[in-house]
Amino acid sequence: MSHTVGIRQAQKQKTRQAFLDAALVLLEEQSLSSLGLREVTRAVGVAPTAFYRHFRSTADLGVALVDEALGSLHPMVRTTVSTAGDSEERITRAIELIAGHVDAHPAHVRFIARERHGGVQPVREAIRAQLVRFAEEVKAELAKDPQAEGWSEDDLLMLAHLYVDQMLITASLFLEALESPEDERERVSRLAARQLRLISVGRRHWLD
Amino acid sequence: MSHTVGIRQAQKQKTRQAFLDAALVLLEEQSLSSLGLREVTRAVGVAPTAFYRHFRSTADLGVALVDEALGSLHPMVRTTVSTAGDSEERITRAIELIAGHVDAHPAHVRFIARERHGGVQPVREAIRAQLVRFAEEVKAELAKDPQAEGWSEDDLLMLAHLYVDQMLITASLFLEALESPEDERERVSRLAARQLRLISVGRRHWLD
DNA sequence: TCATCCAGTTAACAACTGTTCTCTGTTATT
DNA sequence: AATAACAGAGAACAGTTGTTAACTGGATGA
């Protein structure tokens, strides 16, 4: 259908991305509900009114940020769960993946953790919807595992949510330890590994 | 030392409490980092400058709110963990306690969930410090249990943090379901119960 | 009783906010 | 080549913000 991007639409998307980037930087030290429209345009280097060409409000911008942040997370979730190998190896890989993602996109992770329970309803709901999708994907991956034999659908979804929540908690811990020395990050890794291990043990003996 | 409260100090604490109450109401629809000083004084019905007699800034007010909110939570944590009875009975009791607390102090719970990763550093740190204390208390209770035999200190603390985080997640779920019909709240109860059950199973087989 | 304290008031400040309307200059369409 | 579309600029608006200084009047303590 649409073939040529058009130098016009290209510029627009470039500016739009500049808004998203600038907002993400500003949101490192405040919440979305206190992010001002003028503040963002000032950071981008553009007139305040230009904002309306891209977003209806800062809440709208927030929803766009949710898509960007959790879109980039989607591949990670899939590989995290479906990695082959024995249980212990999976856990190590999963935690490495989480740590790597936090290193690569700290502002995204911070934004999600902050706005998940934040003061802007549409953003909260957008995050919630994405996390539900994640849980369903994780559930689908779990169902493929021979260990899932005899598990009810509800129990699988319950476990999936547990994993998703645990993933966010771990990511948030890595985030707090971003500027800390290496041994602190090691400590977080080991804590997260043992928590995942305990959940794995519970999973293995669930049907007893 | 101090015997008479003094009609003066009494009035002051009354006004201070009015600030905390008003702020808690305003924070139901926004985050602390967007809470204005004038907004609060207007809600209390007092001059803007009166604010400075009680707090240095809204961040300062936030820290006071953390103490109030988590102070009221302390008794709950203790009884939640130390309740007698078999594992299944404990879980049911614990979830009832959480649900009851959310019903009784929804604004407190919302505030903690929101500001735990919120945009105001001193408040984040105050919450973090309190949650660490909770985890240590839970650890102490867990250590009393005969089931804790053979557990390392680190593993006990790891499990304690898992319980504390799970408690917050559950509270937050109940909060979201506050206005929902009874069967939705039932669904949350059962989900939370099964997650706690899985952790219990993992705990029981940890030393295998 | 009298001097001191101090919670809360009043007035004013410069700076900032979101939103509207009008205009410009380049790109896209015919 | 003429027309329309449209991203962004500019100016102005009524309100809001945090903070300062000087003041008031009832409680406090000698």
Automatic annotation (TrEMBL), chains A, B:
SUPFAM superfamilies named in the record: Homeodomain-like
Name the DNA-binding stretches. Answer: 36-55
Look up the domain of life of the source. Bacteria
Presence of keyword DNA-binding:
yes
GO MF assignments: DNA binding
Note the coiled coil stretches, chain numbering.
Answer: none
Is this entry keyworded Cell wall biogenesis/degradation? no
| Domain HTH tetR-type, chain residue ranges per copy | 13-73
Q: Keywords on this record?
A: DNA-binding
InterPro entries according to UniProt: Homeodomain-like_sf (IPR009057), HTH_TetR (IPR001647), HTH_transcr_repressor_FabR (IPR050692)
Against PROSITE patterns, the record matches this protein to: HTH_TETR_2
Name of the protein in its database record: Transcriptional regulator
Q: Which organism is it from?
A: Streptomyces bungoensis
